[in-house]
Hints:
Layout: H1 4-9, E1 19-21, H2 24-36, E2 53-57, E3 62-67, E4 70-71, E5 79-80
Amino acid sequence: MLDAKLLEILVCPESKQALHPADEAVLSAINAEVEKGTLLNRAGNPVAQPLDEGLVREDGRVLYPVRDGIPIMLLDEAIEVGPRS
Length: 85
């Protein structure tokens, strides 16, 4: 679990929106896609590892993975989780 003070200062590097921890429903949906091999990050690369944690942008459209307690705040590593057009 991320430190609350760290979470207060982290923002999306793209939109500068606040982030909040992903709930179980979001993580379950993402991990189901990981298991099927259908989940791609923004760079177009497959996401191969299931996620235990993630940070969701305020608008609910983007998730940044958290690996070993470290938020991966790179745009290419972001995962689209909201409505996709």
